């Protein structure tokens, strides 16, 4: 016979209301939660998700909007979001937006239709007019017109660290390579932090800052570095841009770290067990994912969420620096 909530309450020696709170992610004492979860496991109790949703007016589902699942950073972020949601009794809808504003708009509409309880979004599309501070929406890096809660790594400090690491390794001619998004976001602070250190040291910075979406990337990189062969220290807006630079520099007969040194940003790995691909400023992806979920859960439970969370970064010295 299928176990009921009353059976769980009896075994855990708590009230039915307490079991309901645990199942619905409402905070209870840790000791009580452990007892209830143990009883659920022992009885193999499965909550009636449909009835539960009608009662709480929640779907117990969160949508995650990503630019693409092909990028390791976004894939790793999604992994930790799903893992954290699962621990909170929530399921995940994944939106592989690929710059499609209509897709993202549809997911935002799902909140209003109670099909999902909230959204975590990494988005570079024109959806500002659809995002409201009244909606349970947590942004990663990007700012909106309304005061939306967002979680970000310390991009400014990351840029400062990159500049200092290149200078510590005796680089004399520095440059920054990146792309400028038409939408305001925290990644622009990477360049600002890099410039800050160089200005303090009285060092000029050569810059290739391309408007996004970037067109003819390899051609632009080739022209830039052909005209600036003296550059020996490079900081790029992300790791993939660094890999593109490395490819172009190889065609120009230059090899890292012998002829130049290069630092990216993100901390990309091709798998959990592998090392970072290059020297890079590492973002705390797991912590960013967990904090995003915690912030969103606070909104769903009508608690006051933080408006801005900035998490620390660190430098990893790989094979592209000395």
Explain what this protein looks like in three dimensions.
The structure is a single chain. By secondary structure, this protein is of the alpha/beta class. The chain has 3 domains: about 5-55, Orthogonal Bundle (434 Repressor (Amino-terminal Domain)); about 60-150 and about 285-310, 3-Layer(aba) Sandwich (Rossmann fold); about 155-285, Rossmann fold (3-Layer(aba) Sandwich). It contains 11 helices and 12 strands. The chain has helices at about 5-10, 15-25, 30-45, 50-55, 70-85, 100-110, 155-170, 190-200, 215-225, 240-250, 285-300, and strands at about 60-65, 90-95, 120, 135-140, 150-155, 175-180, 205-210, 235, 260-265, 280, 310, 315. α5 packs across α11, α7 (about 155-170) crosses α8 (about 190-200) and α9 crosses α10 (about 240-250). The relative contact order is 0.12. The model has no long low-confidence stretch (mean pLDDT about 90).
Could you list the spans in which at least 5 consecutive residues all have pLDDT below 50? none
The largest sheet, given as strand count, sense and whether it forms a barrel, is:
6 strands, parallel
End-to-end distance = 66 Å
Task: Estimate the strand proportion.
Answer: 15-25%
Q: Please state the average pLDDT score.
A: 90
CATH topology of the largest domain: Rossmann fold
The multimeric state of the shown protein is single chain
> Which outline best applies?
elongated
Radius of gyration (CA) equals: 23 Å
Number of strand segments: 12
Total count of helical runs of at least 4 residues:
11
CATH architecture of the largest domain: 3-Layer(aba) Sandwich
Name given to the CATH homologous superfamily of the largest domain: Response regulator
The tally of structural domains comes to: 3
Main β-sheet, spatial strand arrangement = 2-1-3-4-5-11
